[in-house]
Every structure is written in C-alpha cells, then in structure tokens.
Amino acid sequence: MPAILTEPHYFPCIGQVAAIVRDGSVYFDMQSRFVKQTYRNRCLILSANGPQSLTVPIMNGSNYLPMSEVIISPDHDWKRQHLRAIRSAYSSSPYYLFYSEKIETLLNKNHERLMDLLLDSYMLIFELFKTSVLFLRPGQEENLSASYTDLRNLFSPKVPSTCNLKPYSQVFTYKFEFVPGLSVLDFLFNCGPNISYLTTI
C-alpha cells in the first residue's frame, strides 16, 4: 500500500500533512531519534510580529533518545503559553471559533510522553479536515509498499519550505507577504477543512 514514512511533528507543517493526505496512510518512525531545534517538539504559527515558534519542553537528556522515550517536562507552563499565543494569532481568523475548543482540549490532556501528544495532534488534524488517514502502527511495517515515500528529516525549521504552496489568505496579510512553511494550524484557522487545497501541493 502507498504510504508516507516520516518522524512525527508537533502540529506539523502543511507540506507534511498534504503528503500524508495524498497517500492516505502514514507510518511514524517511533525509533527515530529526538533532535533539538526540529519540528519534533515545535511548530510555527504566524503572530502579529511574524512567525512565532511554539516549543514543547522536554526533559533534560532527551537529545538523540528514541522518540518513543522522550518525556515532556512538567516544569513549564507551556500549555497556557501555547494556547495564549494561538488565541492572540488567530482569534480573528474565520475558523478560530470552530476549532479552538478542540485544540484546547487536546493540549490540556495529561500527556506524559511527547509521542502521545504528537499522535493525538495528527488524529485531531485529520478529524478537523474530515478525511480518513490510515495510521500504520509499530509492527505493521510489512504493510509499507516497496514504493513508500520517505519524508524523514525533510521538513525543518532551519530550511526554507520547498513545498509548492499556493498562497492562501492569512490573518496578517496586510502586514506580511504570504508566509509558507507554517503549522497546519495556520491553514485550518484561515481556510477551514479545504481538503482540495492539500491535494494540489
């Protein structure tokens, strides 16, 4: 079966989501190593001051551990900070009221492992897009076809987005030119469940 092979990200960029939607199934490499300053524990939103990084704090010593072993640090008030930043950036967007409660519910769940938070964020994203995606679990590697698409380490906050994104209306269009490479949250709040857009990337 066609599938995407990738490491999971925190509210991933729209390019990765589009690739998963096109193939219809995804296998997350649970044993990929955690690397700092990647999308594994951060996402980018567009604030009034430009792109803003939201980072999930993790326990010291997590660098290069398997993703399945990384624990979220309990010593930071990051959930409130993320929700406040999202509200500030998108409260005037067309779909904020449709999605904000579900995102708040997700973030306020008691996730101990980073991987559990990431997987829940993917399931919520595809629920909001009203599309079905098959999540291949560990032990289901045999379901990956020989022609699977390996996107591991393709999307990075250190590298400009190479996705062929058609500009869509963003909240701060009056201040900035179109900003690509943002979290899929930016697209959802601005454009809603416009699944046809994802299939054109």
| Poorly predicted parts | none
| Average pLDDT score | 87
Order of helices and strands: EHEEEHHHEEHH
Radius of gyration: 16 Å
Strand residues, percent: 5-15%
Q: Work out the count of structural domains.
A: 1
Our measurement of the CA-to-CA distance between the termini, rounded to an integer number of angstroms, reads: 21 Å
Major β-sheet profile: 4 strands, parallel
Order of the strands making up the biggest sheet: 5-2-1-6
Please tally the helical runs, counting DSSP H or I stretches of 4 or more residues.
Answer: 6
Structure characterization notes:
The chain has 201 residues and is an alpha/beta fold. It has one domain (4-198). The chain is 31% helix and 12% strand. The protein is built from six helices and six strands. The chain has helices at 14-23, 78-90, 96-107, 114-128, 184-191, 195-198; strands spanning 4-6, 25-28, 42-47, 50-55, 134-136, 149-150. Strands 5-2-1-6 form a four-stranded parallel β-sheet. Helix 1 (14-23) links the parallel strand 1 (4-6) and strand 2 (25-28). Helix 2 packs antiparallel against helix 3 (96-107) and helix 3 (96-107) runs antiparallel to helix 4. The relative contact order is 0.26. The model has no long low-confidence stretch (mean pLDDT 87).
Question: What's the short story on this structure?
Answer:
With 201 residues, the chain is of the alpha/beta class.
What are the main properties of this structure?
201 residues; two-stranded antiparallel sheet; 6 helices; alpha/beta
